[in-house]
Fold this sequence. Notes:
mainly beta, CATH 2.40.50.100, 2 domains, 5-stranded antiparallel sheet, 4-stranded antiparallel sheet, 50% strand
Amino acid sequence: xxxxxxxxxxxxxxxxxxxxxxxxxxxxxxxxxxxxxxxxxxxxxxxxxxxxxxxxxxxxxxxxxxxxxxxxxxxxxxxxxxxxxxxxxxxxxxxxxxxxxxxxxxxxxxxxxxxxxxxxxxxxxxxxxxxxxxxxxxxxxx
Length: 142
């Protein structure tokens, strides 16, 4: 973060300030690491730290699901919000596991949506340029 040079009682010290969290500073003094407690008012960071809970998923839960009540219908859902950039399959295509189904543009990046199971495309629920939200239905397969 910052580098300082101190002279104390004739001894020279090279100090690297690594990080400050609340009232604890992490320093490196002449190659040795120290955690130092600060005894003054702590300045609040201008940029808040983002803290997210880890997504809890049940085993087997993903973006491709079998529709209950229908025999063998597999739904391919959008993994994240974005827009459909390119559709690489058409109805009736036989798909193998790992085949690229379509390309989505999300967060200014192109993201490939891959088949997680083998099957045949029965219907495509989106068109190029459509905006989709997370978990929106994209493709149905059998």
